[in-house]
Specification:
The protein is mainly beta. It is 4% helix and 25% strand. The radius of gyration is 76 Å and the shape is rod-shaped.
Length: 409
Amino acid sequence: MPTLDESIQKPKGVGSIITPVAPTALPPPSDASTVTRTTFPTSTPVSPDTLNLWNDRSAGLPTRGRLIPVTAAGAGGSGSGSQGSQGNQGSAGTSGSSATGPQGNQGNQGNQGGSGSQGNQGNQGNQGNQGNQGNQGFQGNQGNQGNQGNQSSVAGPQGNQGNQGNQGPFAGTSLVQTTNQNSHGLGSPGAWVAVYFDEDSSLWKKAKADNANTLGFAIAVIIDSNNFSLYTEGQITGGSGLTAGEYYFVSDSVAGQLTTTEPTASTSYSNPLMQATSSTTAVMGQFRPSQIAPLTPQPVPVLVQAGAGPVADPGGNDYYLANNYGVLTFNVPAGSVVGMQRCYYNYVGISGAITLQMAASNKCSLYGVDSGSAGTVFASGVAGDSVVLVCDATNHWTAFVVAGTWSKT
């Protein structure tokens, strides 16, 4: 039977070997006859760890097999025997506590491994939703016109009707107001009358183009004896007897009258108020009136008549005809060329009365009023009497008085 020390290996690195001493007898149990005492061998030196193990196991035995505890020997003689042979390995001890110790510090990161081979390409994903439509781009430049195709003998379908054009500037638009003026005396219902506003009386009156203060700037369309529509601009309807395209002037001889004949007297004014667009409509505008410039006699051939008359006309376009006789009559030629002129006057030192006899069917306008057909124009008979006649229409003359007092019949 091996010794206890042979059964328990001495731990490596343990210090001095101690010699056990004789065990001390335990107090007898209550039943001394049943106690088996086991003494520690004294002849073999053991380590302190062996003694502790001996005593631990002895204490755990029942009373009958309890081992007698031993203690290490005190200081004594030194001698030591040779080390005995190693005992057999004892049974494995009880497993220690399962408690986990604290985690150690994290180690350094290892080197990155080599790149692996590229994997196979994955399957194509589903198509995404269509994006929103982008903004419309700018219109490109117009391309060149293509060559004209051959004309077909078959008529193509009629194209769609084009859009209606813009309204014209005078399509029914007017500056007009209904005016009340009791017993205005301007004309009968429906009449178109050229009018001006008299600031002295605060009344509308008939215009006349022989005076700057009576020039027309509005047209009154008569409603009744107390009311009229006053047009200052735009289209006028409801007329009659108009000539489309003609301008209508304020007359310098008949107050309120609108006429296509422009005044020509040097004391009158050209005062257009409207232009006819049909036989019943016209467009009124604010045209600037202008004074008729008097004609200045130009140097022409001179015929001095020293004998009795009547004096026949010498013919031609322009002539000066001087009275160097006394009371004398000159025959005026028929007005056949517009613009032809005659100047009649008393020669130096002569104060005789001059009579101008108009040809058949000819008239002469003096101060804006026509003479009778084949009438006369005559001077009172003083030195310096002078008048110029200008043909302004076929069979019609206009007299421009240069000096003296002249009349007509």
